[in-house]
Amino acid sequence: MTSFNGPDEKKIYMKVLGVKVSDIHDWTRSPKPCGRHIGTPDSEVDLDKKASTKSNDSKPNVSSEELIGQRTEKGYLVSINDELIALFKVQGKVYAIRDSCPHAGGPLSMGDIEELPGEGLCVRCPWHQWTILLETGQVGEHKGRKQAAVIFPVKVSKEGEIYIGFDAVSNRFFNLDKYPSVDVVPRRTW
């Protein structure tokens, strides 16, 4: 844990172990057509249609040119402070959001990053296509919804280490009733 100066100085910042900023895919390098969700039923290559025109070896007849633009990138999933958190990087900035869509619990770490006109950057849930704004956690395209995802402030050190801010340390670390008792070994006196 560490502290940082700034508006989130009352947060408890915990270091994400084993992950640096350079390890996280930067979505700026993956342009995607507006309104098209690569890897979803609206994707550019309709593999179901292609599967109907199978070759002799019973594999879908999809050329490599048609697969260009299909992405396998996703958020970086970490477990810290008893939370599963999806990390996304866009234009060098790291965003942290609980890996659970407020609609039905879908894995946001598996979603696409898009820019909603007039709204900002969002992650699109892979289950039901809900958009969640990365800055606020609010639902993007489904206006009027009260659900929101939990977002966390992120700080990055000069060395590229990532720190996520929390309001408190998880109670799990202090609830000794959940763990088996430990026999205390008496100190030796010489």
UniProtKB/TrEMBL annotation:
The keyword Iron-sulfur applies. PROSITE patterns: RIESKE. Residues 53-64 have a biased composition (Polar residues). The keyword Iron applies. Keywords: 2Fe-2S, Iron, Iron-sulfur, Metal-binding. GO terms for molecular function: 2 iron, 2 sulfur cluster binding; metal ion binding. InterPro entries: Rieske_2Fe-2S (IPR017941), Rieske_2Fe-2S_sf (IPR036922), Sol_Rieske_ferrdox_dom (IPR054716). Residues 58-164 form the Rieske domain. SUPFAM superfamilies: ISP domain (SSF50022). PANTHER family: FERREDOXIN-RELATED (PTHR21496), RIESKE DOMAIN-CONTAINING PROTEIN (PTHR21496:SF25). This is Rieske domain-containing protein. It comes from Littorina saxatilis.
